[in-house]
Prior knowledge:
Layout: E1 4-9, H1 13-28, E2 32-33, E3 42-47, H2 52-71, E4 76-81, H3 82-87, H4 90-94, E5 100-102, H5 110-114, E6 119-121, E7 143-147, E8 149-150, H6 161-165, E9 169-170, H7 173-185, E10 190-194, H8 207-216, E11 221-225, H9 234-242, E12 249-251, H10 259-264, H11 271-284, E13 289-296, H12 303-316, E14 320-325, H13 343-366, E15 372-380, E16 387-392, E17 397-401, E18 410-418, E19 423-429
Parallel strand pairs: 1-2, 1-3, 3-4, 4-5, 5-6, 7-10, 10-11, 12-13, 13-14, 17-19
Antiparallel strand pairs: 8-9, 15-16, 15-18, 16-17, 18-19
Helix pairs in contact: 9-11, 12-13
The chain binds 5'-deoxyadenosine (5AD) and iron/sulfur cluster.
5'-deoxyadenosine binds near residues 293, 295, 324 and 327.
Amino acid sequence: MQRSFFVYTYGCQMNAHDSEKIRGLLTGKGYVNADSPEEADLIIFNTCAIREKAEQKFFSQLGRTGMLKRKRTELQIAVTGCVAQEAGKRLLGKAPFVDFVIGPQNIHRLAEVVSSDRRVETGQDNSDIALREFSAERESRVKAWISIMYGCNNFCSYCIVPYTRGREVSRPGSSILAEAGDLTARGYREITLLGQNVNSYRSEMGFVELLRKIDETGINRVRFVTSHPRDFSIELIDAVTNLRSVCEHIHLPIQSGSDRILELMNRGYTFSDYKRKVDALRDKIPDATITTDIIAGFPGESEEDHEDTVRALEEIGFDGIFAFKFSPKKGTRANDMKDQLDETVKSARLNRILKVQEGITYRKNKELEGTVQEILIEGLSETDSEMLVGRTRTNKIVTINALPGDAGSLMRVRIEKARLHSLSAVPVDLETFTASR
Ligand code: 5AD
Ligand code: SF4
């Protein structure tokens, strides 16, 4: 009998892509995908440690799975991802029914580990992982993630990532280009390059050269996450402007609008540095969209600092934000800072930020009504099977009536109606065409 597996995934795109690698590794070893955790012989939790909430979600699901194991003692349970790295052996003490603990820098060992007895694999040497080639089992046939670098050297004072994913290492350009070429040849339309700070990518080539060479593969669309504002350069803005495939959307986490808090966060830029880069981008590409991350209630954040953040939202006019309450993480500097704020203060500030941004997002979307956009169809809408869902180059979600058009086709549409989280549109012509601007 073939053994089967089920993967729970938490957290960022990096982790979602790690889950695709995990699936690839296991199917390569003869495992098959189970439809549900109840049917699986091996359950994997690919975890996220960035905030307490993500961790709690994992621990409560892990608890329920522990019950499952009481009934089926042969069930194996593996924990991968950032909580695995953070908790290591302690996890076995906390949840004795867990069989395997594998940190993100060791996922290439997964198949070997799960065929052994109980084992913890959390060695920290991620320079190795950058040289691995994975054959990921991808969720989509239209768009694909490619890891271009692992780890992080920034040590933002709130962030656990440098401790769980280790130091920054770049994958060789040649191996990234081979992966991109292969995906293009297999009909993929969009590639998203993944790294904690893609602007500091460096191998036998720099990031801009990498983008140029990926553009030459003929892929329709290229995106990249995440950019660090400190390293976001004019050369990169030029690349986004000039390279056919590189999409006009930048995710540029600002975190706070207060220089005092940015300093405490160890971000390495001021609000005006940030604003200057955004202005430079919009100067070259007026229609470019910008999204960001915000942390509400960092230790010591005063009402005034919070107001600075709200003002920053208005001044920049983001197309969308991901905002979070500050969550103290053991082992980071911000965890030990004085003046930790009450949950109620953090919640109130988060709500205010979300509320202000709602107005801005809606206004930005509204501006697109009547415009013609190229969308890449991703598939049927999850809520309405009569509708297709796609995205603009600027990463706005668009729904259209399910006229001809399969996942993977590019279509020109006119935006009819803006909503807060998506736009609805009608096709302008039904011919598909290759991206041109
Ligand atoms: N608390 C709250 N938000 C955090 N982030 C990272 N660490 C923390 C933390 N300790 C947010 C940042 C980052 C995003 C991925 O998660 O905004 O950009
Ligand atoms: Fe965390 Fe900063 Fe690294 Fe992003 S760049 S993962 S916020 S340390």
